[in-house]
Design a protein that fits this description.
The complex is a heterodimer of chains A (224) and B (464).
Chain A: E1 3-16, E2 19-32, E3 36-40, H1 47-54, E4 62-67, E5 70-71, H2 72-75, H3 77-83, E6 85-88, H4 100-110, H5 118-128, H6 133-136, H7 145-156, E7 163-167, H8 175-190, E8 194-198, H9 202-205, E9 210-215, E10 218-223
Parallel strand pairs in A: 3-8, 3-9, 6-7, 7-8
Antiparallel strand pairs in A: 1-2, 1-4, 4-5, 9-10
Helix pairs in contact in A: 4-5, 4-7
Chain B: H1 2-11, H2 13-51, E1 54-59, H3 62-75, H4 81-87, E2 91-92, H5 93-100, E3 105-119, E4 137-143, E5 159-160, E6 174-178, H6 179-184, E7 192-197, E8 204-213, H7 223-227, E9 229-233, H8 234-240, E10 250-251, E11 253-258, H9 264-274, H10 276-279, E12 283-286, H11 288-329, H12 331-339, H13 344-392, H14 426-452, H15 456-461
Parallel strand pairs in B: 4-9, 6-8
Antiparallel strand pairs in B: 1-11, 1-12, 2-10, 3-4, 3-7, 3-11, 5-8, 7-8
Helix pairs in contact in B: 1-13, 2-11, 2-13, 2-14, 11-13, 11-14, 13-14
Classes of the chains: A alpha/beta (224), B alpha+beta (464).
The structure holds adenosine-5'-triphosphate (ATP) and magnesium ion.
């Protein structure tokens, strides 16, 4: 196991009227490969903020985030998102007018995945996540929430980047589907990925190897 | 990127149809104005060709007319002829020969018109009989070649009788007079007559070599003016006037024959550039016939220019707004692409390709329709302009009785070009494609800037 992502002295502030309000204060944590992390905290505590910083969707204001000892700033945010991390959101974030398979292929195109037959590979990834060919060919608005979230996960597996970040990935799903999705994440962690899940759900958190809790801008290890 | 553009165009049918309709209308308007413009240019070239390859340099009298008019309003009389002469810049032989050296000029003819007094014969009055009251005034036109003068040309009103001969630049002491003038004075070809200048000096004798008749011209010009006009070699006319034709002299008109009627504009431009007298407006090329018959075309041409500019500007503005609006709709999609690590430039490019795909279809459809649309528009425009122009020419000034000093070529009934053949050529289509691409690229520019300001985090987490 290696130290993949390191967060050092991270602060994050939002404009609040005239003054700046710190949501994250002096965060120092490390994420390793092969582990499932849960980040918990009350609503508004800064979980999504931390996740968008880890995923390169928002830029680091103060402090540093490194990937294999290289700062995101040096890597470049677009390159970082394209090559090193994958994000999954509560609302799946698929392109609505495309079919499931087209969504996966779009990710392959953007991430410059080199395989002989992209379509075949995409079907295969979806198949492994329990999406059959017939479902894969449907437009994403015509498949269930659980299936959409699997498509979003499939999109994160098109290349062998090691980090998967998820913000409330089961927030819109019923308990049974939630369990299925958690199993997928656990399996991915076992296969060597670094999986970081932001969640409200106790059910999700209890499967994690490590639980971080954000409180008043600080982060603490809750379970190790 | 192409794949994504394609999927988006196919799947978002509503948006595609709106854009396609808009682009189809734009393509038709652009194609129409371009093809109407090129049809008018083509028709103007035809007018040039039909009017022949010649153009005449004259003293500019337009300012003088204005002066005489205001003088008359103030004092009730015409200014003295001395004053009038001072206001006119004669053409110096130096300039006339210099212009003849232009690469476009293949031949030229000069003429010099002056008032003289008849010796031993009488001028005619306005009913065509001997005029005993007149001070024997005869208007003389000296020229290198009378046949090349406007009066004798294909469209001129004067015709030499069968037994007449003409003369050339090297001839001396020969004269062509009106058939009626000869008849009333009992003169025939081979007889002689003499002329002196207005001071009674420089008497010169001439042998009559030709007679002309001019029945057609009597309607528009007083018969006495025509009958009392004679034609002699340029050098003789200059001598009577007291000028030395072996050195610098001045003439009334210089007519140039060009290699190609279509070079007239270039020739005029070149001469204007090289001669201060022309650029200042003291001397001018007489292009009234061309200007007159092409007047409706010129209006149509400038109108189609204005339409084209207006269409391009309006198209860019409308498309820009429309694209920005769709970007708001597509914010979420953009956020997704950005979170997957797509470059903002590639997203802009994708949208540009989508537009180009739709534009290709719209422009292709426009080929089919634009021919009839532009044909119809062209007809309507030219009919309007001809109607306008016909009412305007009624108050064009015609030749005034300035004792032969001031005469404008009478326009008579102008035959306007009242038809243009508008059809969309391959060339028009290429120009339209170039303009269309320009419109699309311009209207994608601002939306692209807009995309670079997108913040994926805000877009995506706001949905959570
Ligand atoms: N763009 C922004 N501008 C200003 N304030 C913001 C912005 N985004 C988030 N905040 C504020 O920062 C704090 C943390 O927000 P964040 O979205 O990270 O919370 P969270 O832990 O994900 O909450 P939830 O569990 O409800 O999703 C909140 O108080 C929020 O109002
Ligand atoms: Mg949140």
């Amino acid at each position: 196991m290696e130290n993949l992502i390191e967060v050092k002295n991270l602060y994050h502030r939002y404009e609040d009227g005239q003054k700046m309000r710190a949501v994250l204060k002096d965060i120092n944590i490390t994420f390793e490969t092969g582990k499932l992390y849960a980040v918990v905290g009350s609503s508004g505590s800064g979980k999504t903020t931390l996740l968008s910083l880890l995923s390169g969707l928002d830029s680091v204001q103060d402090g540093d985030i490194t990937y294999l000892d290289e700062s995101i700033n040096d890597i470049g945010y677009t390159k970082y998102r394209k090559e090193f991390v994958n994000v999954i959101f509560q609302s799946y974030n698929l392109i609505n007018y495309m079919t499931a398979i087209q969504n996966v292929i779009t990710a392959m195109d953007i991430k410059k995945v080199k395989v002989p037959n992209k379509k075949e590979k995409a079907y295969e990834i979806l198949e492994n996540l329990g999406i059959d060919k017939e479902t894969a060919d449907r437009e994403v608005l015509k498949i269930s929430g659980g299936e959409q979230q699997r498509v979003a996960i499939a999109r994160a597996l098109v290349h062998n980047s090691k980090v998967i970040l998820a913000d409330e990935p089961t927030g819109n799903l019923d308990d049974d589907t939630e369990d299925e999705i958690i199993d997928i994440f656990k399996d991915l962690a076992l296969k060597g990925k670094c999986v970081i899940i932001v969640t409200h759900s106790q059910n999700v958190a209890k499967h994690a190897d490590i639980i971080y809790e954000i409180k008043k801008g600080k982060i603490k290890i809750k379970k190790d | 990127m192409f794949k994504r553009s394609w999927i988006s165009v196919i799947k978002n049918k509503g948006r595609t149809i709106i854009l396609a309709t808009l682009l189809f209308v734009i393509a038709n308007l652009v194609l129409s104005s371009i093809s109407i413009k090129s049809a008018t240019i083509e028709a103007m070239d035809q007018a040039r060709i039909s009017l022949g390859p010649e153009i005449t340099l004259t003293t500019n009298k337009t300012d003088l007319f204005d002066y005489i008019r205001s003088y008359r309003d103030e004092y009730g009389t015409r200014p003295s002829s001395e004053e009038i002469n001072n206001l006119l810049t004669p053409i110096s032989s130096e300039i006339a020969y210099e212009i003849a050296e232009s690469e476009y000029v293949t031949d030229f003819n000069f003429s010099f018109t002056t008032s003289t007094v008849a010796v031993g014969f009488l001028p005619l009055n306005d009913v065509g009989t001997l005029d005993y009251t007149n001070i024997n005034k005869i208007s003389v036109t000296g020229t290198y070649n009378p046949i090349l003068l406007d009066q004798f040309g294909d469209s001129g009103a004067y015709e030499l009788t069968l037994e007449s001969t003409s003369f050339s630049g090297s001839d001396q002491g020969v004269i062509i007079i009106s058939e009626t003038l000869a008849f009333q004075n009992d003169l025939v070809i081979g007889d002689t007559l003499s002329l002196v200048n207005q001071e009674g000096l420089n008497e010169t004798g001439f042998i009559i070599v030709g007679l002309f008749n001019s029945e057609d011209a009597f309607e528009t010009t007083g018969r006495n003016i025509i009958d009392n006009e004679v034609f002699i070699p340029l050098n003789d006319a200059l001598s009577i006037n007291g000028q030395d034709y072996t050195s610098n002299f001045t003439i009334t008109t210089a007519k140039y024959y060009l290699d190609d009627p279509l070079n007239i504009d270039l020739f005029v431009e070149e001469s204007t550039l090289n001669h201060e007298e022309i650029s200042s407006g003291a001397l001018t090329f007489n292009d009234v016939n061309y200007d007159a018959i092409t007047a409706p075309l010129q209006s149509v041409a400038s109108f189609s220019d204005i339409v084209l500019i207006a269409v391009v500007v309006a198209a860019v503005v409308i498309l820009t707004l429309l694209i920005i609006n769709t970007l708001k709709e597509r914010k979420y999609e953009i956020g997704v692409l950005l979170s997957l690590g797509e470059d903002k430039i590639k997203i802009s490019l994708q949208y540009l390709i989508e537009l180009l795909l739709i534009a290709t279809v719209a422009f292709t459809l426009a080929i089919a329709t634009s021919n009839s649309i532009s044909g119809y528009l062209g007809d309507v425009l030219i009919e309007n302009e001809v109607a306008d122009a016909s009412t305007e020419t009624t108050d064009t000034p015609k030749g005034g009785g300035g004792g032969g000093m001031i005469t404008l070529t009478p326009l008579g009934d102008v035959e306007y070009i009242d038809e243009i053949d508008v059809s969309v050529s391959f060339n028009d289509f290429l120009v339209t494609i170039a303009l269309g691409s320009m419109i699309i690229i311009l209207s994608s520019a601002i939306p692209s800037l807009y995309i670079t300001r997108f913040q994926p985090k805000k877009i995506l987490s706001s949905r959570n």
